[in-house]
Write a structure and sequence with these properties.
Helix content is 80%, strand content 0%. It is an all-alpha fold. The chain is rod-shaped and about 90 Å long. 22% of the residues are buried.
């Protein structure tokens, strides 16, 4: 009788261990999938940038510094190797694009250009998708990190070398309220 009891306890522990391990693997894979969605949107945005720069070039020839800043930020984003580097490069690109659109305000013909308007709309749509992807990623990171910190799943996480992930954070610049004037 005691043998069956011990075997039953061992079976329950093994089943719990397998279930917890599989749960952590699933959470880790959801984080990777969420990151890939951010990556897709950031690459989409990066591919729009050269078109936007070309549309602006003819109008703002003397604003070369702004265009170079946008190009440099885009290159940094494309070369990012991990979520932290991508977040930093994304923040740099966001600032550069704000500068570019501020410059564009000074050129009425540019603001009225169909090509510029279309690119601006596509970029706006992409920004919305990036924000949604960031939120999805951070939700999955939260779920994984919570599991890795909560007992008893934290034990399984330690035994199998699972590691916490880093949240995709906005910069202080992105957190500022934007003033809209009509």
């Amino acid at each position: 009788m005691i043998t069956y009891f011990v075997i039953g306890i061992i079976v329950l522990v093994v089943l719990w261990l397998l279930g917890t391990y599989n749960s952590l693997v699933s959470l880790r894979n959801r984080v990777k999938e969420a990151w890939s969605q951010i990556d897709v949107q950031l690459k989409r945005r990066s591919s729009l940038i050269p078109n936007l720069v070309e549309a602006v070039k003819g109008y703002v020839k003397h604003e070369k510094g702004v265009l170079e800043e946008v190009t440099k930020a885009r290159t940094s984003l494309m070369n990012a190797k991990n979520p932290g580097q991508a977040a930093e490069a994304d923040n740099m690109l966001t600032g550069a694009l704000k500068s570019l659109f501020a410059v564009a305000e000074n050129y009425p013909n540019l603001k009225a250009s169909e090509n510029f308007i279309k690119l601006q709309d596509e970029l706006s749509d992409t920004e919305t998708k990036v924000a949604a992807s960031r939120q999805f990623y951070n939700t999955n990171v939260l779920d994984l990190n919570n599991s890795l910190e909560q007992f008893p799943s934290s034990l399984v996480g330690q035994w199998f070398n699972f590691s916490k992930e880093v949240f995709f954070k906005a910069t202080d610049e992105e957190k500022k309220e934007v003033e809209v004037k009509f």
